[in-house]
Design a protein that fits this description.
It comes from Aquamicrobium segne. Residues 136-155 are annotated as: Disordered. This is Conjugal transfer protein TrbH. By secondary structure, this protein is α/β, with parallel strands linked by helices. It has three helices and nine strands. The chain has helices at 2-23, 42-60, 75-86, and strands spanning 35-36, 66-68, 90-92, 102-104, 106-112, 115-121, 125-134, 137-140, 145-148. Strands 1, 5, 6, 7, 8 and 9 form a six-stranded mixed β-sheet that branches. It has a three-stranded parallel β-sheet with strand order 3-2-4, with helices on one face. A hairpin with a 2-residue loop joins strand 7 (125-134) and strand 8 (137-140). Helix 2 (42-60) packs across helix 3 (75-86). The protein is globular and about 50 Å long. The relative contact order is 0.20.
Length: 155
């Protein structure tokens, strides 16, 4: 019964996160503002960012895309910046660019019952996953959720 309770809570968290993500719109103006409300160690932030950028590469293509995002100064924002660069992505923050060739990226990191819910958002798709922080980093505790925006078949 104890194992079911943990599974039940995790399932409820994922359902709530999915419902909340469905209620939140990006509108015509652009992405949400990147925010981090969960406290992560640099090791946990780095392992989460590395895993999420690997998933991003599967959707956006590995290293041949320019990413525009504004880090918020958190450990996760810094780790995400480093991880994107290590995967070969060019990164722009404030510069004026040709928007047609840029993938705008925003992120949220929230705590929920001892786990961390991480979402990378673009105008084309959202990637969401839960992680359990530990002493050496963080481990995924949920499957990756991919939500496509717009027409099917475009990533």
């Amino acid at each position: 019964m104890h194992g079911f309770s943990l599974f039940g809570r995790l399932a409820a968290a994922l359902i709530c996160a999915g419902l909340l993500a469905g209620c939140q719109t990006l509108g015509q103006v652009g992405l949400i503002q990147s925010t981090v409300t969960a406290q992560l160690t640099p090791e946990a932030a780095s392992s989460v960012a590395s895993d999420m950028v690997g998933m991003l590469a599967e959707q956006a293509g590995p290293g041949n895309t320019t990413i525009r995002f504004t880090p918020d100064g958190s450990a996760f924002g810094q780790a995400l910046h480093v991880s994107l660069q290590s995967w070969g992505y060019a990164i722009v923050t404030d510069q004026k660019t040709d928007e047609a060739n840029i993938l705008a990226l925003a992120y949220t990191v929230d705590e929920f019952e001892g786990a961390v819910l991480v979402r990378l958002s673009t105008l084309r798709f959202d990637l969401t996953r839960m992680y359990k922080p530990g002493a050496d980093g963080a481990s995924p505790v949920s499957p990756l959720s991919i939500r496509q925006h717009g027409s099917a078949g475009t990533a």
